[in-house]
Design brief:
The chain has about 475 residues and is mostly beta strands. Helix content is about 0%, strand content about 50%. The chain has one helix at about 100; strands at about 20-30, 30-40, 50-60, 65-75, 80-90, 90-95, 105-110, 115-120, 130, 140-145, 145-150, 165, 190-200, 205-210, 225-235, 240-250, 255, 260-265, 275-280, 280-290, 295-310, 315-320, 325-330, 345, 350, 355-360, 365, 380-385, 390-395, 405-410, 415-420, 425-435, 440-445, 450-460, 465-470.
Amino acid sequence: MKEILRSANPYLPLWEHIPDGEPRVFEHNGERRLYVYGSHDTERSAYCGRDYVVWSASVDNLTDWTYHGVCYTATDGSVLYAPDVVQKGDTFYLYAAEKCGSRIMVASSKNPAGPFENPIETKLGFDPGILVDDDGKVYAYWGFCSSFCAELDDDMATIKEGTFRSHPIGHVPDTWNKDTDTAHIDLRDAFFEASSPRKIGGKYVYVYSKRYVTPLPELGVYEPNNGFLSYKWSDSPLEGYREGGDISFNGGEILELPDGTGQQTYRWGNNHGGLVEINGQWYIFYHRQTGTDEFSRQGMIEPVDIAIGKDGKVYIGDITYVNGEPVSSKPVEMTSSGANVNGIDAYKFISAGYACHISPLHQAYIQPVYECKDGISAPVVNIKGGTVVGFRYLQFGTMPPKTVSVSVKVKGRMKVRVRVDNYHGKAVAELEIKEGDTVQSALLTAGVIGRRAIYFEFSGEGEAEFDSFTFDR
């Protein structure tokens, strides 16, 4: 029987809704694994949930994830916002954001999968990010619309006297707090939330969620937007942070329009994540939204490039080089393939829930699923004529497929054209789908090999629910 695709982008099962994922590689019992801890979107009508769960994958296979269960619940049963976990010595420390992030506790365990116990209250704040430096010193970073940082004492909880710093990064104009310090507003690189520190090549890299308040036409941004994960860098952990750039954006594939502007193809929303190096390759972890709100988010992963210029500047993302030297960077593309760097196996059953392109915006959307069922699909729903659902990238190998099959329910009658490489690329198949059909197949009219983007273009007067598809040789 044909295999169902179980890990792409998002990398966890489609029923699991974990945003704010801070990726960490830990060695435990002689095995190095990548662990993800995140706030858990189980409230469904509000952000996050009332427990933290843990998933991990071998560093040799980021498409095979293991569920370790609940590792922490709040001391008062309150909603938990974004956490972080670090290791010092033989102990793992979980920084838990209780009461919707207004009270930060630190709990400990000898196992990176928990359970984390003996919680101690700290003086840290919203979205804590922790850095254990090479010399054993520990630094904390936090904030919402204003950033703060400090060194921690050996108890991993107390701020070391004289180390507290305000505004290491300029912040967004804060419409949520009228008492905000206006002296540190930075309209270009405005800190919003989601502090995530890393030490890379001897540099201190501060990843955070930026809120753009000025237009960014090349990415289709014309109103305040905090779908970005961005960074600044410094030679010192607590001060001196300099201009960096944007690493990722959860607005989907950005279409380049004839006038040089961009067009988003996925409904952006808040963002949070971090950087991790696996076997010499760096990745950015972030999240996207499903449904029609921000309460059913899913963890995403993309490979990124990191380089340090001759002048010491740090470049992260999609980097442009001139004569071997980095000169600029931009956000990496949002894909369906994620850690499948050579592309998703086109010959598996692929859920429409892995789409990274749904246009036009604010019409069709991925319907959240919550049933913990192996191989469950998350359909794209509310599809009308003119909708395009795209996937970047699939891997077809060296022998082209003969047919494509789609699982689609329609009201009325619709036509589906399958296009390659871009949303208006060559049509290689066409399907007529009428009400009552569940699976429809068509012969391909041209050969498709290698790593390619695939788009399903719907036309007609009906309405469709797109569940899954596959190709066959």
